[in-house]
Design a protein that fits this description.
The chain is an alpha+beta fold. 19% of the residues lie in helices and 33% in strands. The protein is globular and about 30 Å long.
């Protein structure tokens, strides 16, 4: 994640294929602390905290719903999940993370 721009939770650019974003506030009722990569077609893969949940999660945010993949991630699981965002972004954008 090199370029920094501020986006609201309703900004459709969060779902733009290959766009990575860092999340740092739950003021908007969406993500709290974590990272995401846009998957295109109104989907975003998110790793991080979710309001009202313990531990970190992996989920897919769609513009109209949230699909939980894993919850309660801590320690090494949390680090691996963050690496997943980089790996997926690299695969989408045709680059190498090594």
């Amino acid at each position: 994640m090199t370029d920094q721009i501020a986006l609201s939770a309703n900004d459709t650019r969060l779902y733009q294929r290959g766009l990575t974003a860092a999340h740092s506030s739950d003021d908007d009722g969406m993500c709290d602390l974590g990272a995401s990569v846009g998957l295109g077609n109104g989907n975003m893969l998110y790793v991080g905290e979710r309001p009202g949940r313990d531990g970190w999660c992996i989920c897919v945010y769609r513009q109209s719903e949230t699909i939980s993949i894993a919850e309660g991630l801590e320690g090494e699981q949390r680090e691996a999940a963050m690496d997943l965002i980089d790996e997926v972004a690299a695969a989408i954008n045709g680059s190498d993370t090594t």
